[in-house]
């Protein structure tokens, strides 16, 4: 039995695919990027922070997983859009180009927190103003890093993917299982 420190329904569904028993715990932390922090350092720090916060929330702590996903383009990190203008800016950056999605997964077992970082390159087709407005009105972008969900209506924008599809959705299945095995949580 393990714990998943996440409020994301996608992460719950993905972890279910690994076929292990888990409970969901809170892993809330401040998600702001620190000055001078690289995207890699940022996403790993958040995943570790969520795992550690989730571990600390339990009275009889289980090995606890935390994860974080960011979208990166031109050295900029795109988080969750704050409003339509922010979303529009993100879609204009992503339109007709390749970007990188980074997902870090961390496992906290008390004193030690180990992590794995997965990078995936995703290419988008050219997006029209109409595509952007219609996608915003679907309600899907609001809670997603980079303002899109590859598993939903934005799947049609993707012309190429190199890396882990599951990492883009929020939890890389292969790498998460490897991490659990390396740390002796899974046989
Ligand atoms: C790029 C992309 C992101 N996402 C989601 C995955 C994450 O849930 C979210 C990125 O935000 P995160 O801050 O990584 O996660 P979260 O706040 O949703 O959940 P928690 O911290 O409680 O675990 O964006 C998709 O569902 N599909 C996609 O294609």
From TrEMBL:
This is dTTP/UTP pyrophosphatase. CDD domains: Maf. Nucleoside triphosphate pyrophosphatase that hydrolyzes dTTP and UTP. May have a dual role in cell division arrest and in preventing the incorporation of modified nucleotides into cellular nucleic acids. Its EC number is 3.6.1.9. Pfam families: Maf. Belongs to the Maf family. YhdE subfamily. Keywords: Cytoplasm, Hydrolase, Nucleotide metabolism.
């Amino acid at each position: 039995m393990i714990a998943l420190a996440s409020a994301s329904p996608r992460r719950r569904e993905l972890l279910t695919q690994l076929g292990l028993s888990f409970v969901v715990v809170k892993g809330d932390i401040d998600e702001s990027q620190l000055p001078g922090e690289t995207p890699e350092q940022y996403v790993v720090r958040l995943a570790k922070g969520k795992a550690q916060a989730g571990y600390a929330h339990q009275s009889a702590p289980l090995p606890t997983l935390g994860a974080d996903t960011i979208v990166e383009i031109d050295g900029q990190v795109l988080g969750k859009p704050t409003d339509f203008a922010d979303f529009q800016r993100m879609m204009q950056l992503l339109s007709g180009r390749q970007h990188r999605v980074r997902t870090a997964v961390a496992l906290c077992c008390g004193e030690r927190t180990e992590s794995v970082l997965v990078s995936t390159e995703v290419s988008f087709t050219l997006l029209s103003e109409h595509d952007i407005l219609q996608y915003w009105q679907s309600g899907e972008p609001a809670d997603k890093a980079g303002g899109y969900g590859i598993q939903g209506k934005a799947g049609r924008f993707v012309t190429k993917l190199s890396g882990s599809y599951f990492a883009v959705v929020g939890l890389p299945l292969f790498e998460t299982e490897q991490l659990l095995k390396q740390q002796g949580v899974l046989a």
